[in-house]
Design a protein that fits this description.
The chain has 12 helices and 10 strands. The chain is α+β, with helices and mostly antiparallel strands.
């Protein structure tokens, strides 16, 4: 099961105020019953809390403390996206209420039903083991559900509001380059060689844009607690948009650390992708291509972008720590990941033929 902790200092809110609000807006929520609040320990972006009251389990999501990147933490947009996706993609959580009144807990937030299950982090939960054959099957399931996500008819699902696919790659590259320069601290690498490469080699717009999750990976899927081989949920839709599917896959594979990767890349691993039987990045790319019939010959570009974008995300979070806006010690270590990701991107550039 996903680990919860006592709410971190500085990330608390008024429980009684929240309880009153939930009783007014959620059917069958009993205000006379105690409400307990714990915090999910994983994740580095939006803050996520587990709410329990008389047998009901809910999840509350709110922006991180000190975040100034409004578009990256738009709770209303995320709530609207989840509400539209759920009917066509049952892995999506069921939303219950969105609140933009800061008097309730100090910021906007939304609440959804919890999908109880197992979430894989760096090391497997105690007592859970996979054979090499089972590990491979789980990797195949992960990529196959990514394919299913990309098969959703965006317009028919009423999701046309989530983004404009025209010029998507150019906007992504320019936007993430600007974000990196804005978030760069004195101890961060400059990434200028990588940014120049991404701008110089941009592919044309895809002729078949899709619903892009933008953070699809093992620790954002939920496994059935009774059958861990089965994926039952996909979480963290805050960056979902309408765009290039290979950009989405590239972002996912930026997290994928293989058993034979260099030691510095091993040190930033956050998921159990080095288990015996785990698919390699190349195998995942090949399976995705076979399932979708897409041309994967230019994929080094998308992988390089994914490495860079992941570094920007880490740098933005590290900057908040560097400025004293958060005291979460995990964030202080992210500067090392930024350096590792630059080296990985430069190595990819050196070997690529595109």
């Amino acid at each position: 099961m996903e680990e919860t902790i006592h709410v971190r200092k500085g990330e608390e809110f008024d429980i009684n105020s929240l309880k009153t609000y939930l009783a007014e807006h959620i059917d069958h929520f009993d205000i006379t019953q105690p409400l307990t609040v714990k915090q999910f320990s994983g994740g580095y972006s939006n803050l996520t809390y587990l709410l329990k009251s008389s047998g009901i389990e809910l999840v509350l999501r709110r922006p991180p403390i000190g975040a100034k990147i409004k578009t990256a933490h738009d709770m209303g947009r995320e709530y609207r996206i989840l509400s539209a996706i759920r009917p066509v993609f049952p892995y999506c959580p069921e939303t219950l209420v969105y609140c933009e009144d800061p008097s309730v807990i100090g910021t906007h937030f939304y609440v959804m039903k919890r999908i109880p299950g197992i979430i894989l982090r760096k090391e497997l939960p105690k007592g859970l083991n996979f054979t090499p054959e089972a590990t491979r099957q789980l990797c195949e399931a992960l990529i196959d559900i990514h394919v299913k996500l990309h098969e959703i008819d965006v317009q028919a699902a009423g999701l046309g509001f989530i983004g404009k696919p025209e010029g998507y790659v150019e906007r992504q590259v320019n936007g993430w380059c600007a974000r990196y320069r804005k978030a760069k601290t004195d101890d961060a690498p400059n990434f200028e060689t990588v940014m120049a490469w991404l701008k110089d080699r941009q592919p044309n717009d895809t002729d078949s844009p899709v619903l892009v999750h933008n953070d699809y990976k093992f620790d954002n899927v939920v496994l059935d607690p009774h059958n861990p081989m089965r994926i039952i949920g996909v979480l963290d839709w805050e960056m979902a948009t309408y765009g290039d599917p290979l950009m989405d896959l590239g972002n996912s594979l930026a997290y994928w650390v293989e058993k034979n990767d260099p030691s510095d890349f091993q040190n930033i691993r956050v998921m159990p992708t080095t288990m015996d039987g785990a698919m390699t990045r190349n195998e995942l790319i090949e399976r995705y291509g076979e399932k979708t019939d897409r041309d994967m010959s230019y994929f080094d570009y998308y992988h390089g972008f994914g490495l860079f974008r992941l570094a920007v995300i880490a740098q933005q979070i590290y900057q908040r720590y560097d400025q004293g806006l958060t005291q979460d010690r995990r964030f202080g270590m992210l500067i090392f990941a930024v350096h590792v990701l630059e080296r990985a991107a430069l190595q990819l550039i050196d070997k690529t033929k595109i």
